[in-house]
Amino acid sequence: MICMADEILIERIDQIGVIRLNRPDKLNALNMATMERLVNALERFDADGEIRCMLLAGNERAFAAGADINEMADASMVDMYYRNQFARWERIKRVQKPIVAAVSGYALGGGCELMMHCDIIVASETARFGQPEINIGVMPGAGGTQRMARAVGKALAMDVVLTGRFLKAHEALTMGLISRVVPREHFFEEAVRVCRELCEKGPIALRLAKEAVLKAFETPLSEGLEYERKLFYMLFSTQDQKEGMRAFQEKRRAIFTGK
After folding, report:
1. How far apart are CA 2 and CA 18, in angstroms?
2. Residue 110 is a catalytic residue
3. Active-site residue flag, 190
4. Active site residue 200
5. Same domain, 169 and 143
6. Are residues 60 and 182 in the same domain?
7. For this structure, is 211 an active site residue?
8. Residue 144: inside a domain, yes or no?
9. pLDDT for residue 3 is more than 60
């Protein structure tokens, strides 16, 4: 069943919460209304006990080709400060369940930054990635400089951010920006397949594993290792740990309940 709004389409596929950007005439440019509805949908799915992961997609032509420049072109510094548009992006960081991105066509500027907020990125061979804000007199503001540098390293991040050049799909894969590349006709299908695979895992372990990986970008190694161990020990208080290890011993498929 698909629930339609002006800017996004929301759908459930079994235990997967699907959100599709729906501004095809604007190459899915991210205006404030789109971001508000997108973040609200992510938060609802995150709180829904029947949903185990989320899938975020655009269409074949564009995942999202950037922010909606019409909303910013005449704004002053004070306007932008009080608008506080990046508060919505902070809410995406707090989503606990895995988010899989299905990317085809353009993922540029804010679209690339949105993609980098996701946990697993499945891209079509036609996908193009970049932070071209420099071409309109600004720079990335939703994490593009920081997440790009952490994903691909300083040299390539400087190249992408300072020149505005685009990365092709296989280049982005080689440099560690995305997770996997598939033919264009299969990018959404493969993302759904990945989501189904995640739905078979222990929900609590998935959340804590995501939390631990993200922690690695914000802490020294020693602190990150200590944090990882604590989460590892914590999982031994769950029914899913008992079921998973018992199923392994009995050579059968584990049935996880998120308890």
Report:
1. 9
2. yes
3. no
4. no
5. yes
6. yes
7. no
8. yes
9. no
Main-chain phi, psi angles of 165, to 5 degrees: -75, 155
Q: Please tell me the predicted confidence (pLDDT) of residue 67.
A: 83
Residue 254 located in a structural domain: no
Q: What's the pLDDT band for 86 if we cut at 50, 70, 90?
A: confident
Catalytic hit among 110, 130, 202, 244: 110
Question: Binning pLDDT at 50, 70 and 90, where does residue 73 land?
Answer: confident
Q: What is the CATH number of the domain that holds 159?
A: 3.90.226.10
Catalytic residue among 101, 109, 133, 169: 133
Does any domain span residue 255? no
Q: What is the pLDDT of residues 129-188, one digit of tens each?
A: 999 999 999 999 999 999 999 999 999 999 999 999 999 999 999 999 999 999 999 999
Q: Give the total number of structural domains in the chain.
A: 2
pLDDT of amino acid 176: 96
Closest CA to 36 of 10, 57, 7: 7
Which residue among 64, 67, 172, 209 is the active-site one? 67
Residues 190 and 218 placed together within one structural domain of the fold: no
